[in-house]
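note to self — DONT lose this again. spent like an hour looking for the file last time. sequence + predicted structure for the chain T wanted, 353 res
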Amino acid sequence: MNKIQLILGELNKNNIDVEVFIVTNMSNIKYITGEEIEGYILLEKDKTYIVTDGRYIEVANNVCKKIDNANVIDILDKEKIENILSKKCVGIEAGNITVARLNNMKEKYNFKKVIDTVNIVEKIRCIKINEELDKIREACKITDKAYEYIKVYIKPGMTEKEVKNELEYYMKKLGAEDVSFSAIVAFGANSSKPHHVSGDTKLNKQDIVLIDFGCKVDGYCSDMTRTFFIGGITEKQKEIYNIVLNIQLEAEKNAVKGVNVKHLDNIVRADFDKHNLTEKYLHSLGHGVGLDIHEMPSLSYKSDCNLEKGMVVTIEPGLYFENEFGIRIEDTIIITDGKPEILFNSSKEIQII
């Protein structure tokens, strides 16, 4: 079954009866077309329209050769678009389209009815096909190599920004098209901030280093965090590191097909609670990875879904001590029929450089 049929099937499964479904989320457009195309897609029961401008017309025409009953419409051709949308019941991606954009379309095309939808395409994107998994595997290989490189490159006196820029440049040098997100490089006490913005802090001879980074291959992301030490490690750091590592390894082992994500996160919280450290665990256990660095499913106590074969998620427990240090260890993994496939080979044991 092709992607468009899957989307129409998901609408039907959720009893969303629309004549036209409007796809505006850029990652969802990439998922459907395989290309970066600005504009939007109109899905009818038996026809697909890619609405875009002159910059993407040629690319869109090539895409349409691979999709049954697909056509390109120039975004300036109001008459053609009006013929499709006028007085129709349309479904929109409510979590993506802006109020201003929706109001503009309503004014132009006189919709009969608008039905809000949430995560229709995103639910389908949760389960990756082999082609998608291969792209994520390649992104993870590049990330692995970049981590090994940066451990040799890094020296006391360098700033966080210097290391971040070199890390991102090196991944692109290895073939990444882009970074998954702006890398987090945190030295010393800055590591206690889970989403630290790398700055001018210089590396000292007895510092902890936390690096959270990833890259993209044909739009698909990787995500890895490693924490290591320069010159030495304190007893407290060693104790906390081993607690995080053991919990991370156990969580990965438990991340199997059929397990409930809320249950998985709650196990981690209970394990931290045994050490009276739950209040230092400041985020959820992980998240889905694909065309977006954060996508469904969320591995959180707030979520309520089961892991399925083909999902790609992160396992990233961490502990953070304000103005002291933080430790996070993260892998990207694939859910399989058996034990999960861990996509990084970089060591997670304590490393002192």
